[in-house]
Amino acid sequence: MAAENFSFKITHTSDHCRARSGILSTPHGSIETPNFIFCATKGAMKSISTADLAATGAGIILSNTYHLMLQPGPDVVEKNGGLHRMLNWNGPMLTDSGGFQIFSLGHGGVANEIKGRRNFPQNVKSLLKISENGAVFRSHSDGSIIHLTPEISMQVQRKLGADLVLAFDECTPFHADRDYTAMAMLRSHRWESRSLSEFKKSDDGNQALYGIIQGGVYEDLRRESAEFVAQNDFFGQAIGGSLGGSAEQMHAIVRMTGEVLDRERPTHLLGIGKIADIWNGVKSGIDTFDCVHPTRLALHGGALCMPNSSDGKGFMNLHNARFREDISPIDESCDCHCCRNFSRSYIHHLLRANEMLGGYLLTIHNARFMVKLMDDIRTSIQRGTFPGECKKWEISQKP
RNA sequence: GGUGGGAUAUCCAAGUGGCUAAAGGAAGCAGACUGUAAAUCUGUCGGGUUUCACCCUUCAAGCGUUCGAAUCGCUUUCCCACCA
Question: pTM of the predicted model, to two decimals?
Answer without folding.
Answer: 0.93
